[in-house]
Write a structure and sequence with these properties.
Structural class: mainly alpha
Strand content: under 5%
Helix content: over 70%
Order of helices and strands: HHHHHHHHHHHHH
Distance between the termini: 41 Å
Shape: globular
Number of helices: 13
Length: 301
């Protein structure tokens, strides 16, 4: 049976969602013994090891670049985003951390206008603002009312989403004259270099079973990224984007079954608003991309 491009893409995206849930589950499980900075180091190390055979085929081409400054900035921001994101997954319920991670699409709206100088109209601006309202709903304290309105895990989740949006914006700039493989190689290698100093501050030698789990976490993270790219390449972006949100469903299931985390009503309501806003933004960008074929019809909104 021949699969349609969208069906192939959907299967890749589902594999990415399952892999992402497995990775974040390991992050949370290993959290008590291995701080976020140390987990980030192992994540980057595994990524480099997976890419080494491909780099060895043409190491000159893999590292060919004319913009080292942007690559260094993008990699350093990516490592900081990983550390903050891992910390959020360790400290927050999986459903909350996953839902807040989707705000990266909302951050892309102002960054596209400020950095890429893309025309951003009132519809996408309004959708982004509504999405941030959903994030604020998720940040409400629990029923006891004694928690701070927002704590460090929530701050790190939002900051991680912003930094990931910044790296995506940088990637859009770099893809004008760099292949995706070169960007992936630099993100992995420079990311490993930048991950070493913070890891040394919290260093501990893992036990053999924990080393296996840390290695699995890193390899799964790299394969998840590859599955996401394959999914986006195979299918239409507007069709693939909603499938990525299945990882929120998987996160709720994993949190409930493995960590006994019951989602709060505020999490469900806020997540629904964030997902709806980001889906609208993705759909609107797809519509504008289709209109670009006919410049006379293209208007920013």
């Amino acid at each position: 049976m021949t699969l349609t491009p969208n069906l192939r893409g959907a299967l890749w995206m589902l594999a990415s969602a399952v892999g992402f849930t497995a990775m974040t589950t390991l992050i949370k499980f290993l959290g008590p013994g291995y701080p976020a900075a140390l987990q980030t180091f192992y994540r980057q190390l595994a990524g480099v090891l997976v890419l080494l055979p491909l780099i060895a085929r043409d190491w000159r081409g893999a590292f060919r670049t004319t913009r080292p400054g942007i690559l260094i900035f993008r990699s350093s921001a990516g490592v900081l985003a990983l550390i903050m994101g891992f910390y959020a997954y360790q400290k927050l319920p999986l459903a909350d951390a996953n839902a807040l991670s989707f705000t990266r699409t909302l951050w892309l709206v102002p960054l596209a206008g400020l950095v890429l100088r893309e025309p951003i109209g009132p519809l996408r601006i309004s959708a982004a603002l509504v999405g941030f309202v959903g994030a604020l709903i998720m940040l409400r304290p629990g029923a006891g009312g004694v928690q701070a309105w927002i704590g460090w895990p929530q701050v790190c989740a939002l900051a991680s989403a912003f930094l990931f949006a910044l790296t995506i914006t940088g990637m859009k700039v770099m893809t004008r004259d760099h292949s995706p493989f070169v960007l992936l190689v630099y993100a992995a290698v420079l990311g490993l270099i930048f991950a070493i100093p913070p890891a040394l501050f919290v260093w501990r030698w893992p036990t053999w079973p924990d080393l296996g789990l840390l290695a699995a976490m890193g390899v799964i993270g790299t394969l998840t990224q590859g599955a996401y790219i394959k999914g986006m390449q195979a299918g239409e972006a507007a069709v693939m984007a909603p499938i990525d949100y299945t990882r929120l469903v998987f996160a709720v299931a994993a949190g409930l079954l493995l960590f006994h985390e019951v989602p709060r009503p505020a999490t469900i309501i806020g997540a629904a608003i964030v997902v709806g806003s980001t889906l609208f933004i993705s759909w609107r960008e797809h519509q504008l991309a289709k209109r670009s074929v006919e410049p006379s019809l293209q208007t920013p909104d």
